[in-house]
Request: fold
Amino acid sequence: MKKAIKQALESHDSPGSRAGEKPARVIATSCFGLCPKRAVVVTGGVHAARGEYVLVSAAMDVPTALALLRDDPNGPR
Reply:
């Protein structure tokens, strides 16, 4: 799953990155108290501060999860 997330981040962030924005990273951490079975917790930036998380259980769902968490007013919500 980690490889799928990294690949999705690279393809998601590269072409449309905003000027001055740091590239996304994958880090290992706790389960944020959710501890899902056979899934990973994905969050970042202001979404983490607001307690917003997405659970991903399949590699093919990673791009959708990243789109949900992206701070783009024109992106999917």
